[in-house]
């Protein structure tokens, strides 16, 4: 059995039983290599990821699964599949003008994958050196923040209520970073709780302490989602497109270099996502240290 996956305490969950079964095979490592290849290639074929994004997803998925077992893969796949479904639904429902606001298209590239998944990989590696609850919570908080932000963005953009700035409360155009709506906030909370419950079911026994740990995951994940909106409204770069008379996150449109409207030019959505994810993961770990 994998010396790393063996560090995760058995909880009686389906993931625990599958870990014991799968990692007892002598060729478990290569079997996992094949499984992750199938998942990555399938995501690329389904046009959810670019080629670079598929390579990044392979690395981000393989590391946590080898260290933490199939509970990690279950948690990551839950986020990824939910994000894919919500993204396709949102793309069908939103207008072309809203799509033009965003810097990148629907397929996630390597930078987007690392911005949302790097801390999950780091958390798993830290757990390999120090197998303890805080690093499990850190992993869950990292994945939970990515899920919370994705749920808030993809579902919130469908809100019939006009979004407002999270800083000033003034109305904003749907799709702009920093804009929030009741539907988006509620969806972000659902995403955070969903990952927290998945982590509880895969990694933690049914105890009061586990319930507290799951609550920490949900809390830190949703905090990261809110921080993402705050950073999006303040420091993320937005540009003014005079020809189309709109604010956009794209620095160049139709070969035209656009003037900076607000924020810092080097801070794009990937930077905001990475910072929010790092803060959420560290917050979750810190709170877990307190409760343990």
From TrEMBL:
<dbReference type="InterPro" id="IPR002794">
    <property type="entry name" value="DUF92_TMEM19"/>
</dbReference>
<protein>
    <recommendedName>
        <fullName>Protein PGR</fullName>
    </recommendedName>
</protein>
<feature type="transmembrane region" description="Helical">
    <location>
        <begin position="111"/>
        <end position="129"/>
    </location>
</feature>
<feature type="transmembrane region" description="Helical">
    <location>
        <begin position="183"/>
        <end position="204"/>
    </location>
</feature>
<feature type="transmembrane region" description="Helical">
    <location>
        <begin position="211"/>
        <end position="231"/>
    </location>
</feature>
<feature type="transmembrane region" description="Helical">
    <location>
        <begin position="271"/>
        <end position="291"/>
    </location>
</feature>
<keyword id="KW-1133">Transmembrane helix</keyword>
<dbReference type="GO" id="GO:0016020">
    <property type="term" value="C:membrane"/>
</dbReference>
<keyword id="KW-0812">Transmembrane</keyword>
<dbReference type="Pfam" id="PF01940">
    <property type="entry name" value="DUF92"/>
</dbReference>
<keyword id="KW-0472">Membrane</keyword>
<comment type="similarity">
    <text>Belongs to the TMEM19 family.</text>
</comment>
<feature type="transmembrane region" description="Helical">
    <location>
        <begin position="21"/>
        <end position="46"/>
    </location>
</feature>
<feature type="transmembrane region" description="Helical">
    <location>
        <begin position="66"/>
        <end position="90"/>
    </location>
</feature>
């Amino acid at each position: 059995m994998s010396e790393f996956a063996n560090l995760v305490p058995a909880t009686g969950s389906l993931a625990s039983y599958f870990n014991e079964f799968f990692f007892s095979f002598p060729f478990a490592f290569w079997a996992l290599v094949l499984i992750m290849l199938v998942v990555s290639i399938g995501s690329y074929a389904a046009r959810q990821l670019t080629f670079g994004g598929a390579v990044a997803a392979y690395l981000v998925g393989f590391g946590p699964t080898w260290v933490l077992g199939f509970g990690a893969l279950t948690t990551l796949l839950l986020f990824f599949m939910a994000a894919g479904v919500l993204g396709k639904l949102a793309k069908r429902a939103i207008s072309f003008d809203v799509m033009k606001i965003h810097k990148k298209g629907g397929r996630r590239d390597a930078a987007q994958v690392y911005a949302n998944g790097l801390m999950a990989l780091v958390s798993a590696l830290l757990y390999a050196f120090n197998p303890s609850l805080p690093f499990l919570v850190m992993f869950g908080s990292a994945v939970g923040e990515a899920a919370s932000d994705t749920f808030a963005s993809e579902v919130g953009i469908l809100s019939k209520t006009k979004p407002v700035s999270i800083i000033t409360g003034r109305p904003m155009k749907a799709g702009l970073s920093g804009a929030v709506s009741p539907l988006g906030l509620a969806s972000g909370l659902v995403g955070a709780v969903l990952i927290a419950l998945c982590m509880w079911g895969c990694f933690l026994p049914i105890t009061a302490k586990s319930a507290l740990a799951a609550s920490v995951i949900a809390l830190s994940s949703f905090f990261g989602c809110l921080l993402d909106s705050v950073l999006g409204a303040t420091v993320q770069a937005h540009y003014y497109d005079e020809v189309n008379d709109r604010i956009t996150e794209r620095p160049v449109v139709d070969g035209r270099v656009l003037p900076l409207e607000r924020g810092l030019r080097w801070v794009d959505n990937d930077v905001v996502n990475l910072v929010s994810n790092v803060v959420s993961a560290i917050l979750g770990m810190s709170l877990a240290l307190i409760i343990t």
